[in-house]
Design brief:
The chain has seven helices and seven strands. With 206 residues, the protein is α+β, with helices and mostly antiparallel strands. It has a single domain, classed as Roll (Pnp Oxidase, Chain A). It has a seven-stranded antiparallel sheet. α6 packs antiparallel against α7.
């Protein structure tokens, strides 16, 4: 991912928090020179100083076989906002787009048996803890049938690229204009970009 130095997220923990907040991501692999993508919910955690991301495909999805023994890309991205030239102090300006994104690379390992069952429990705990009691109470035969229909996997991240394009190259007045306009927008994504810009200003990293 192209990342100018002033847009790079240096804090790994900040990048992980972003991945955990916007955990419905896109996994990309390549087969016979052709890129293939699937959109999946991910579990993001740190263990022994390693970042591990996990999810599962439908077994019928052919991409589940493509991730074995190859480098895979998972893209985490969510809030974004159109930035109008009306926010700038000079007339000679053009529109742009603000956004955040994290790209992770690594090789995937297929999870079987108890590891697959544990991943499902961890994902339920992460996304809907109240459902865990219902899941635990379901017949084993039913749960086993459901699990046979998926391919679970985890990826140890060996390269993480994180970018926050939040008008860091604009003047303080221009950034204030953008924050003010986006803060009052109807779009949730635009308001979230305003929140990230405000947090960046408070941290003194803008």
């Amino acid at each position: 991912m192209y990342i100018p130095s002033f847009n790079k997220i240096e804090d790994i923990q900040e990048a992980i928090r972003f991945m955990q907040r916007y955990s419905f991501a896109t996994i990309v692999s390549v087969k016979d020179g052709f890129p293939v993508a699937t959109h999946l919910p991910f579990l993001v955690k740190q263990k022994n100083n390693k970042i591990i991301i996990s999810s599962h495909f439908a077994k019928a999805n052919p991409q589940s076989a493509d991730i074995i023994n190859s480098t895979t890309l998972v893209i985490f991205t969510e809030p974004h906002a159109y930035i109008s030239p009306k926010n700038y102090e000079k007339e000679q300006n053009v529109p742009t787009w603000n956004y955040l994104a994290v790209h992770t690379y690594g090789k995937c390992t297929i999870l079987e048996g108890d590891d697959k069952a544990m991943l499902l429990k961890e994902m339920i705990q992460n996304y809907e803890p109240g459902y865990l009691k219902q899941w635990d109470g379901l017949p084993d035969e039913y749960k086993q049938r459901m699990m046979r229909g998926i391919v679970a996997f985890e990826m140890v991240v060996n390269d993480l690229q994180a970018k926050a394009k939040l008008s860091q190259n604009r003047t303080e007045t221009e950034r204030e204009n953008i924050i003010n306009n986006l803060s009052h927008a109807e779009s949730t994504a635009e308001r979230e970009i305003a929140e990230y810009m405000s947090a960046l200003k408070k941290s003194g990293n803008d």
